[in-house]
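A.,

Following up on our hallway conversation. Structure tokens first:
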């Protein structure tokens, strides 16, 4: 976790393919390599790839390989109604639009409106036309979406202990009290936001942490609390020590009724 993180790109399938993006960037003089069976490319020689024509045309976004595993884990399909409940500036919303081929609807929620404005800007460049942004102003924003979503993504606020390569100062600023507060927020989000999911639909709870207390233990608490209404289908932890990329956790949960 004390080494520099790799620069990983995600090919935007609304505009290109990983193979085409590789050829375009190589022709522009950038050194990249593809990661097999994925939309990811690694920049192998340091360069400002964001000055490339490919970036200006919306052909890729920077997104770590571990982060790129979360949206496919949700098993989205074209034409579905999907809620990205903690969308931030939209990396995973854009990935959703790419996998859904702009078909269906993505509702991107966040408590910070300025992040959603950045998402809109990125979506225009990416050609993602099926994303609607909604700032969470009151609890009514969530209640109006109850039982509406075929798929729900909760990329929850967390300690960030899986991405220390990118934010090394976290090691000096994060306290046990901070983590306790975050765990409480995570539980509140799970408890309040889960009702946006339709019966029979899937939600993914994910974090960029590797702490069981933010991950497996939170999901177990949620499943136990909901008394059989939600069941855990699969969970996965990606450790930097094993992958060389960021640390991530994801759990796919089904709403039974």
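Then the amino acids I'd put at each of the 257 positions:
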């Amino acid at each position: 976790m004390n080494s520099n993180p790799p620069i990983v790109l995600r090919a935007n399938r609304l505009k290109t393919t990983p193979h085409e993006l590789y050829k375009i960037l190589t022709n522009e003089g950038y050194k990249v390599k593809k990661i097999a069976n994925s939309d990811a490319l690694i920049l192998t020689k340091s360069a400002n790839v964001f000055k490339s024509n490919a970036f200006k045309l919306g052909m890729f976004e920077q997104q770590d390989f571990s982060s790129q595993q979360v949206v496919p884990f949700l098993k989205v399909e074209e034409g579905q109604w999907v809620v990205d409940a903690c969308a931030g500036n939209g990396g995973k919303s854009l990935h959703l639009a790419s996998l859904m081929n702009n078909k269906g609807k993505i509702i991107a929620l966040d408590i910070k409106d300025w992040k959603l404005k950045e998402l809109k800007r990125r979506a225009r460049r990416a050609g993602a036309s099926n994303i609607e942004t909604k700032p969470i102003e009151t609890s009514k924003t969530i209640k109006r979406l109850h039982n509406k979503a075929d798929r729900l993504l909760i990329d929850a606020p967390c300690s960030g202990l899986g991405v220390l390569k990118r934010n090394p100062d976290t090691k000096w600023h994060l306290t046990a009290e901070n983590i306790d507060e975050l765990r409480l927020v995570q539980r509140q989000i799970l408890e309040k936001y889960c009702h946006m999911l339709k019966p029979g639909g899937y939600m993914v709870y994910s974090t960029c942490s590797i702490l069981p207390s933010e991950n497996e233990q939170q999901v177990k608490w949620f499943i136990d609390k909901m008394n059989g209404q939600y069941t855990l289908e699969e969970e996965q932890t990606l450790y930097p020590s094993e992958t060389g990329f960021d640390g991530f956790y994801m759990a796919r949960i089904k709403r039974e009724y």
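The chain has a mean pLDDT of 97. Curious whether your intuition agrees with the design.

B.
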